[in-house]
Every structure is written in C-alpha cells, then in structure tokens.
Amino acid sequence: MARSADPTLAERRRRQILDAAMACFGRRGFHRTSMQEICGEAALSAGALYRYFPSKSDIIAAIAGEDRRDSEPLFAAIANGDSMIEGVCALAAHMVAKCTAKAPLFAEVIAETLRDRELSERFATHEAETRARLVAAIAAAWRRAPAPDMTPERAARLVMLMLDGLALRVMREGVHGAVDAGPLLEDFREALLRLFATAAPGPRKRALAGVES
Amino acid sequence: MARSADPTLAERRRRQILDAAMACFGRRGFHRTSMQEICGEAALSAGALYRYFPSKSDIIAAIAGEDRRDSEPLFAAIANGDSMIEGVCALAAHMVAKCTAKAPLFAEVIAETLRDRELSERFATHEAETRARLVAAIAAAWRRAPAPDMTPERAARLVMLMLDGLALRVMREGVHGAVDAGPLLEDFREALLRLFATAAPGPRKRALAGVES
DNA sequence: ACCTGAACACCGTTCAAGT
DNA sequence: ACCTGAACACCGTTCAAGT
Lengths: 213, 213
Prior knowledge:
Two copies of one chain form a homodimer. Helix content of chain A is 72%, strand content 0%. Chain A is mainly alpha-helical. In chain A, helix 1 packs across helix 4 (56-66), helix 6 (84-101) runs parallel beside helix 9 and helix 9 packs antiparallel against helix 10 (181-195). The longest helix of chain A has 27 residues, at 117-143. Chains A and B meet through helix 7, helix 8, helix 9 and helix 10 of A and helix 7, helix 8, helix 9 and helix 10 of B.
C-alpha cells in the first residue's frame, strides 16, 4: 500500500476539492450539482477527483465533519461559566449563526444525513459524543450552582431536542432567504429559563414562598 | 382545456402511482428509486405516469400533502379537552407514530422539503396554517383553565420547535432501525409540564407556598 | 505518482406513434 | 382520450492511456 510521495499534495487536493464542492453545493444543492461541475470549479479532472474522494457521498461526509472542532470552547463555557443557561444559549447562537451563514449547504448536509445509511451512522456517533460532552458540561455547571430537579442526562436530551428543532427551523427559513435569528433565540432562552427553573413549587421540594405582593 | 372523459380514472391512476411511489421510496429512498421502478410497481409506462405527475418532485409533494386531513381532531382535542398539555402530547404521539411507521418515507419527504424550493414554499404555507390552528387551540384551552404567564403565540412556537426536534430525532433513529418512542414522549411531556407550569413562583405572580414538608 | 478524458451504465423526461 | 416505449440529454463512476 504505497503512501503518497508528497503527503501535503493529497491534503491540498482534498481542500481544493472540498472548497469547490462547498461552493457548488451552496449554489445549486447536492443532487443538482454534478461531479463535472465540482471538477470544473476545482480545475481537476473526474479521474483525479475520484482519487481523493471515492464517491460524491464521501464529499458530503467530509464537509459534515469539517467544523466539529470549533465547538469545544462552547462546551467548556457551559461547564465553567456563571450560568449554564447562558452557556447553552451561546451554543445555540453559535449553531444558528453557522446555519444562517450557509443555510443551503447545511440543509444539504442534513438532508443527505437523513438519506444515506453510512452518513447517518457517522452522524449518530458524532451526536452521541456531543450528548456526552453536554451531559458532562451540565453536570459540572450544576455542581457549581443551584440545580433544578432533573438529571443532567434528561437536561441534555431536552437541550438537544430543542437545538434540533432550532436547526431545522433555521434551515427551513434560511434555504431560500434571510432568517431573523433574534426572535428564535429569544424563544429558546425563554424555554430554557422555564425548563431549568430552580426551586419549582413542587409538592416534595422545599418551596420558596412568594413573600411580596 | 379538455377535461377528462372519466374523471374517476384520473383519480384512480394518481392513487395507483402514489401507492407505487410510496412503496418504492420507503424501500429505496427518493433519489435511489428511478421513475422506471415506479412505473414497474404501478404497472404503467413512463409516458402514462408523466400524464398524471409532471415530475418526480410532484410525486413527493403529493405524498407530503396526503395526511394533512387526519390531524384535525387532534387540534380540536387540544382546544376542548381537559388538559392542553395532554392534548399536545397526543398530537406529538400521533406524529411520532406516523414517523416511526414509515420513517424512511418521511425522512425522504423532509429531506426533499429542505432541498427543493417549490416544496419548501408549499411546506411553509402548511406550517403557517398549522401554527395558526395550534395558537387558536392553545388560546381556547387556556380560556378554560389556569394559564401560564405566556402568550399562546409563543407557546405554539415552542411546541412546534419541540415537535420539529422530535420529528428529526425519530427520523434519524427510524431510518435504519426501530425507534423506542416511549422515552422520547416521556421527555416531551416532562418538558411541556415545565414549560407551561402554571403559577410559577415569579416575583409578580401570586405564589403557591409549599405547605407540606 | 498523478492525472486525463473518453466510455459505460445508468437517469429523468419527452414525444411520435399506436389504440 | 389514454397509453406505449424508443429516443434524448444528461448523470456518477471507471479505466486505459498518458506524463
């Protein structure tokens, strides 16, 4: 199994192809852009392209895996910040910004992730990791501040449920026009505040009596 | 513009084609099933099929529009039932059941809805109608029972955000295997209970003191 | 080692021709 | 009026041939 003579060439070619593909997918969608178009945009022949990506699907997979790294600080902020809720809001804002910036491309990725078996499995793995990071971050946050009557596991599941909803909504509004993120994030924060309110007046929790009024 | 000689034939042919397409899409996905396959399944030639559906996209659009009718009673139940929360849970359960029963098909519909401009617009119209019905139903429910400190509009947006998240999750788990709806719906109900808790111990609401313990 | 581009086996859609 | 199916203009992918 011969390794590449110039290992940086392979990496540069992959970048070149990925950039070309992202430009094309963003313009025309995954299924409407042909390999020929990507070849044209990347100034490479079909044969050369297939040397670096064995199929069109693999290109989308590579794009989907691209920006996993830059979310790490967001999780650290949830774990160590003053407010778990604000930390999660920042995570949501980050995601919404990414989605609005390149909604058509992300819509393609989501759609393809729902369609392709292999992509779907890769995505499930990634999602499980993300959930684990979120559980750890929420648990850490709640060790440092008053926590509601809920497990970090359920909290993480609820947060991810809402993040999924948010993503889908931003996609749908963003694929064919501008999206106003403000109200969406405001709704999201309001939901978090109610979901994770501490000291709820439940029957078997210590209750804070409403003193004033 | 000649009308059909036998108006029931057109309807029967559309059903025949739609049923064939749903079977094929469920088996192999939207983009992987060819028009030839649908023709084979429907026992019709390509030309005949194109007489009833001008494109492959129109077939998916027709499938997406198919089961809008049967959700009407669910909204009525929210408006008139004892508990708005239980009504919304029933709506969620209905949606989850539909999605789990034919996850691959619904995943195709969602994916295509994100990809295709015309489909996306039809979907947006449908969604706006749904939201209006939900707002009306929640407002009606809250006129008959204690309501939380929230507008029906925001409540409807939050419910739809969570329903979207739920749908996406069920799709992702269901496209390639069985999905256990129980825990998902339990999370969903728990979220609703917290989101729409009445008499929250906020500073300017009458507060229920925790008497026992 | 890396690349080219013609060729292959398809695809969605159309349309002249049948009944 | 309704249908057929060959034909058209593509598509993703491969592979012999070049450098």
